[in-house]
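Hi V.,

You were right to ask for the full record rather than a summary. Here it is.
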Amino acid sequence: MQDRIPTYPGRVKLTPVTGQTNVYDMAREDAPTEPGTALNKANLLSDETETVIWGSAANRTVNDALNKLGGEVWQIGDVRTTVSNTLDDSWLLANGGMIGAANYPILAPMLPYAVSQVSSYTGTTLTASTSSGRSLSKTLYSNGYYIIKDSSYGYLYYTQNLSAGFQSVLLSPPCAGLLKHLNGFFMSTYFNGSTHQILWGTSPDAAWSYASVVSGSTYQIGDFTYDGTNWAATYGTSVYCASSINGAWSKKATLPQISTTGAEAKLFSGNGYTVANYSSSYSGAYYTTDLTQTTVWSGTSAVAGFLGFVGGKFWGYVIASSGVYDIYVGDTPITMTTKIGTILTNVPVVGSVQYDNGTYYVRSSSTIYTTADMTANSLKSLSDVPSAFDSINTPDKCIANGTLMQITTTKVYTCPINNRLLPSISVSGAYSYIKGV
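Predicted structure:
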């Protein structure tokens, strides 16, 4: 710190306060050659310094800091082994338990996620360690159910409690394609060798019904949607519609640039619009306000493609450069004006948007990004989540109730994304702790 060096030590100027007898304003008039260091919180004990010492700022005094520094100085993340079990609340027992990341904002990024394998299946020969010919391919959480689809045999595995394991149901006809929840129905698709069908049920274990959409073997159903009035499905470059899910489906519009394989085609409905991605060229998308129209839908250049309709907004991407995608949201497919962030990965192929407990999650092929409010530049990367699954080659994942559920073709893994795993340290005759705050 620097002393004040006055030319006229102690000199002040007194100015009478108008209307107040014997009351004066006082100002220094010592003409310093060096003003010195100001005596304030920022210079004596700033919030930043408090955080270094205690892990958080709480308007502590210089005396508090001196008392703290007079003893041992421990940093957040330090491990301490002692025979005492009476340490203060800033220390966490290193017993392998989980902590809430929000409660330990400095410690949490130092710790790993708690990845576990769901090992309980009932009703089939599928277990956590053997596939028995199964091929898990799609995940979904909706209406209180976690659901996994087996694309080889048409089984659905479902549970309302991940810790209780999964039960299974074999549908007839079996589900083989997409997996969605629309207008109160769980839905999938099936091709019986000549006819493409849409399947639906009110719950995974309820009796499912089906309707034939189109005959042919050239393509597969790419996606389906419901706009509040009509149902629609893409088959190759064609759009088929029905006024009721079990009604008569008929061909309407032709969209020449929709993916003909169906592997990447996407349909989303909301706010009176339905959008369809180009998907094969990643250079734009179509939209309509009337699913029954027979003419080609209008094209939009607002984005290159769409990721979903979530939170009352359309979510889309613009290709900034190779492997770099800017994410936009908007009320309509032609007013995508709010850029919420940038993603560095292959978005169009596997990208999706989900909402869970106050947070929007944008999933790409390798990373999960989050935003709480869809405002400009609010998208942040959960860069350490994928590292928890480095050894897992996954076809799909979903987020629900604070847990990331991810599958391989034969196994199911879960990871509470808001928690972190404490180290497990065992010392004979002593206790090990980690500094939390």
